[in-house]
Amino acid sequence: MYVLHPITVHFPIALLLVSTLFTFLALRQMRGAWETSAYHCLLVGWFAGLVAVLTGIFDAARHLTGPDALYTNELIGRVNAHAFTSIAALLVYGLALLRRRRRPDLLEDAEARRGYLRLHVLGAALLMVGGWLGGYLVYVAGLGVR
């Protein structure tokens, strides 16, 4: 059976990071189009990220369990770190999405804006660490390609 997870991760990573970029551009240029685009990237990226997490759980269970699994505790630890950071990123971006949906004028209030921007920055950092760990699992450890 073909590995599903690598196919589903690229769009959510790109969309969520672009959402963060567009949010900062909206603040810098004070144009509503950037903020609208940031919101749509956040919305679609979050749902695509949910699909990526589900396929990741499925693929990890398939590769790391059963009689043919010859993986070490170190590799399983890295898989768990990848899963933790990626799920944490999805949760953080989910909180940002929830805040934005509840308050469409969020960027106009200084206090609410700071919390929203912190969520975006934290989510982007977690997403990059999780993506790096995923790349390590494929390109260094060979998970899913052997």
Automatic annotation (TrEMBL):
Residues 4-145 form the DUF2231 domain. Keywords: Membrane, Transmembrane, Transmembrane helix. Pfam families: DUF2231. The chain crosses the membrane at residues 6-27, 39-61, 81-98, 119-141. This is DUF2231 domain-containing protein.
